[in-house]
Design a protein that fits this description.
This protein has a 4-stranded mixed sheet. It is α+β, with helices and mostly antiparallel strands. The chain is built from 3 helices and 4 strands; from the N terminus they run H-E-H-E-E-E-H.
Length: about 120
């Protein structure tokens, strides 16, 4: 790990601790009611992976460190672990999955739903 990466890691951990302490000492400040808070590592950006295959391998490597099994579904590769309602996860969305999503979304502007009166 480079000195810059180490520094960034320490800052992130310090920030998470500061947030937890702040929320703990300010009970009037609301927190998310539904679903987990996520800390997501995108392996194609947040690691040294330089290819999609390497980024997928990184998801598997991180899964092993977390003691879990990665999930691969529809071009989404995910490994995660929950700490109560806080979840840490490593994610890779393949280029093919992103292209499928873009293709589906390309029809968005040409579809008009009939509004139901009174709804």
């Amino acid at each position: 790990m480079s000195p810059a990466q180490h520094h960034h890691r320490r800052e992130l951990i310090s920030g998470l601790r500061a947030l937890a302490a702040f929320l703990d000492s300010h009970p009037q400040v609301p927190v998310p009611r539904y679903g987990p808070v996520r800390v997501s590592v995108h392996t194609n950006y947040d690691t040294d992976a330089s290819t999609e295959a390497e980024a997928i391998t990184e998801v598997g490597r991180i899964a092993a460190l977390l003691g879990t099994t990665p999930i691969a579904e529809n071009g989404h590769h995910i490994a995660g672990i929950a700490f109560g309602s806080v979840r840490y996860e490593a994610i890779l969305v393949t280029q093919a999955a992103m292209e499928r999503r873009a293709a589906r979304d390309s029809y968005r502007d040409v579809i008009a739903l009939n509004e139901i009166e009174g709804a």
